[in-house]
Amino acid sequence: MDLNLIRSTFKKHFGCEGSVYASPGRINLIGEHTDYNGGFVFPGAIDKGMVAEIKPNGLGKVRAYSIDLDDYAEFGLTENDAPQASWARYIFGVCREIIKRGGDVQTFDTVFAGDVPLGAGMSSSAALESTYAYALNDLFNLGIDKFELAKIGQATEHNYVGVNCGIMDQFASVFGKEGSLIRLDCRSLEYKYFPFHPVGYKLVLLDSVVKHELASSAYNKRRKSCENAAAAIRRNHPEVEFLRDATMEMLNEVKADISAEDYMRAEYVIEEVQRVLDVCEALEKDDYETVGQKMYETHYGMSKLYEVSCEELDFLNDIAKECGVTGSRVMGGGFGGCTINLVKDDKYDHFIKRAFEAYTEKFGHEPKLYNVVISDGARKLC
Ligand code: GLA
Predict the structure, then answer these.
(1) Beta strands 108-114 and 327-330, pairing class
(2) Whose CA is nearest to atom 8 of ligand 1?
(3) What single-letter DSSP state applies at residue 105?
């Protein structure tokens, strides 16, 4: 990220200097679509994110400039002031969610830019939300704790973007720690850092560079299916609040009462919750073969049961298998984006070469490659 560009752009637009904050995107080793089911996730923050310079302006309106989109927006802070531009709605939403919680946010000038690839499933939007939630909390001395900052980002997605997401992305962006993945129990919000240095392996993302339309409505539909299945199970087992609390036996009891689609979605989630726990156990023994096997199982579930993969991602997963990659799966919400791959050092060069050649031949364009560097969460830079 070019800090000088942010600083010079802020100066050019507003004639002064502000404070600079940054928040990262994230990867997720395993535990996909489990967060809104009260299950476990295993994300880490990455070395790509959003950076914003910001300074209170006392003008009664926010003045915001997106360097990447070369677009400018102005808006007030009441509910009626929602800006048109979708990027500006994220900033507006964060302000509104803080105000709703009683935080005294004043208007400000800001310039921001990012290097999280958009639509790649690495949570550029959570990075943007966390940057502003963290910055406004710090600038206006609001005393909001880190979990609430993550929840402010999540509520922004729900109420100003229209995605009923879970807490994983914003949590990882705020709580990230260099060199560590974080296991989060999305029901109790207990979390534990796991230093992640798989000796002899690399963690690499292959970006399909496709983003399918309607991803957010399909995402919301998946969530609804899970809620339907949990509600049906709850009629027999009142203690089941989320699918995380359910077993396959409980799901099978209500098989005839729910749609075949809802059944498949719930089956995937129940299995995925268990896979995260299995991976944690395997990591404690440095058993990366098991970790990798679970990643392939997740891919299969996301593709065949949850149906959030696509031809391009299935293709990348097949190539990984063919090249003897230890683990590979679609990462994030799905419907395009990246696969995450755990690759032995001695297989890496061959895998990347083969994936680039085969993918380009089949789809007419190259995938993109990102080597994962696990990094710190939201912070003030200067
Ligand atoms: C998106 C959402 C997250 C999570 C993942 C799937 O990234 O924002 O809350 O549900 O999809 O694991």
Answers:
(1) unpaired
(2) 165
(3) P
Q: Which atom of ligand 1 is nearest to the CA of 166?
A: 9
Residue 171 token pair: 């949590």
Give the range of the structural domain holding residue 42, as residue numbers without chain letter. Answer: 3-198+376-380
Known catalytic residue at 169: yes
pLDDT by residue (tens digit) across 10-68? 999 999 999 999 999 999 999 999 999 999 999 999 999 999 999 999 999 999 999 99
Same domain, residue pair 77 and 207:
no
Residue owning tokens 């392996």 = 201
Q: Supply the pLDDT for residue 170.
A: 98
| Residue whose CB lies within 8 A of the most ligand 1 atoms, among 27, 33, 174, 313, for a mutation test | 33
How remote is the CA of residue 48 from the centroid of ligand 1, in Å?
A: 18
How much is the pLDDT for 1?
74
Place of tokens 């709703």: 100
Three-point CA angle 97, 98, 104, nearest 5° = 140
Residue nearest to atom 2 of ligand 1 (CA): 165
* Cα 321 to Cα 59: distance, rounded to the nearest angstrom: 57
Residues of the chain below pLDDT 50: none
The span from the CA of 285 to the CA of 272, in Å, is 20
CATH of the domain at 325: 3.30.70.890
